[in-house]
């Protein structure tokens, strides 16, 4: 499979915006999580004064737990997606075009005479039925 690098401007923009928004989401969740931990560690009075809802302490715990769970789940999903991409596409060399294949190599690989390959390359329409030896050129 050859991956063509020529994409429409709209598709590139959509991919760019999706990537940037995903990173912004991850960074905001990580920042919120780390800031919460920092505030808890450095200033319990600040946390009590501004973050802790004294009327409903369970609500504050719920918000903190949900934030931590969302950050952890998002991190796991991103990590698994990166692992999948690395194992699926990591060995591909997409920066270089594949080496050209000669008619001799094609002929040897598929077991087709070179004359048939020449006919196939010059034909405008080729029909075949699961067997390359039964090629017809209408």
Automatic annotation (TrEMBL):
Descriptive protein name: Poly-beta-1,6-N-acetyl-D-glucosamine biosynthesis protein PgaD
Pfam families, per the entry: PgaD (PF13994)
Residues spanning the membrane: 20-47, 59-84
UniProt keyword Transmembrane present: yes
Domain of life: Bacteria
NCBIfam families in UniProt: PGA_PgaD
InterPro entries recorded: PGA_PgaD
Keywords: Membrane, Transmembrane, Transmembrane helix
């Amino acid at each position: 499979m050859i991956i063509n690098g020529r994409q429409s401007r709209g598709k590139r923009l959509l991919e760019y915006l999706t990537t940037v928004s995903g990173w912004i989401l991850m960074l905001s969740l990580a920042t919120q999580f780390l800031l919460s931990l920092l505030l808890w560690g450095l200033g319990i009075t600040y946390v009590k004064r501004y973050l802790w809802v004294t009327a409903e302490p369970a609500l504050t715990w719920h918000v903190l737990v949900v934030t931590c769970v969302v950050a952890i789940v998002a991190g796991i999903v991103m990590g698994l997606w990166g692992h999948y991409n690395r194992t699926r596409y990591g060995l591909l060399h997409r920066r270089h075009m594949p080496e050209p294949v000669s008619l001799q190599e094609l002929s040897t690989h598929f077991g087709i005479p070179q004359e048939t390959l020449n006919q196939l390359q010059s034909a405008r329409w080729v029909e075949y039925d699961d067997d390359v030896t039964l090629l017809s050129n209408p």
